[in-house]
Amino acid sequence: VPVKKLAVPAAISKSKTDRMVPLSQRCQAAIDKLRNNVWTYSEMGYTMFAFYTREYSKHITVRQVERIFKWAGVNAIGRPVNPHMLRHTFGSKMMRVTNAAIVQELLGHKHLSSTQVYMHPNGDDLQDAIDNLNI
């Protein structure tokens, strides 16, 4: 059964509420590939952690993820990046294809003002808005 949504439990949510976030077909395929080729399955279900440490007995920590992103950013684009930058990129890219209320919901914000922090329009966005007005 393909994974179509990602559960965000209240325990890790800033708003302390459970929510489900839809996944793109590309993300669904990547998760299915991991599930079928990497993660192990037992009678109790899939292994407890999606990503392990080198010992395979513990999940990777937030700090380890931050270090991986920093290393990858420096090697790929010559500057460090962090996981939270993905959230800003997601918010900006979503604003180009849908309305603010949808982006607000996807980011899990109660208030639109919180969502606006994640919107970073560029010159092309401004020109596209004018061109799409068609007057």
UniProtKB/TrEMBL annotation:
Stretches of the chain forming a coiled coil according to its record: none
UniProt cross-references to SUPFAM superfamilies, sorted A to Z: DNA breaking-rejoining enzymes (SSF56349)
InterPro entries: DNA_brk_join_enz, Integrase-like_cat_sf, Integrase_catalytic, Tyrosine_recombinase_XerCD
GO molecular function, one term: DNA binding
Keyword tags: DNA recombination
Keyword Ligase (UniProt): no
Transmembrane segments: none
The keyword Repressor is annotated on this UniProt entry: no
Protein name: Tyr recombinase domain-containing protein
